[in-house]
Amino acid sequence: MVGSAGAARSHLTLLAFAAVLDEKLADISQQFNIPLYKVRKVSLLQEQKSQHNSYWSTWNELHHQIGSQFYLLTEAVEQAMKETQASQFPRLYS
């Protein structure tokens, strides 16, 4: 029973993390006037390894679609992810 309670707490923490991050991504979407699905794709790109061809294929696709705001958007997404991970959910990363 103790194990299942811990697993349930971890699951709820992960859901809370996702909700907070999704809210931040929605804010970034509005700030940059970029569709939310593209902002989410940028966040997923951050989790990929740059050594893989799929990373660069997605990177090129997003850069082409987003244009001159791509670099600033990427920085905003990276910052939102770091802030969410470190300050609000440290137990996920310890």
Record the SSE blueprint.
Blueprint: H1 2-32, H2 36-46, H3 53-66, H4 70-88
Helix pairs in contact: 1-2, 1-4, 2-3, 2-4
C-alpha Rg (nearest Å): 15 Å
Helix content: over 70%
The total beta strand count reads: 0
**How far apart are the termini?**
24 Å
Backbone shape: globular
Beta strand % = under 5%
Determine the mean pLDDT: 84
List SSEs in N-to-C order.
HHHH
Structure overview:
With 94 residues, the protein is an all-alpha fold. It has one domain. Helices cover 80% and strands 0% of the residues. It has 4 helices and no strands. α2 packs antiparallel against α3. The longest helix has 31 residues. The protein is globular and about 45 Å long. The model has no long low-confidence stretch (mean pLDDT 84).
What distinguishing features does this structure have?
single chain, 94 residues, mainly alpha, globular
In short:
This protein has about 90 residues and is mainly alpha-helical. Helices cover about 80% and strands about 0% of the residues. The longest helix has about 30 residues.
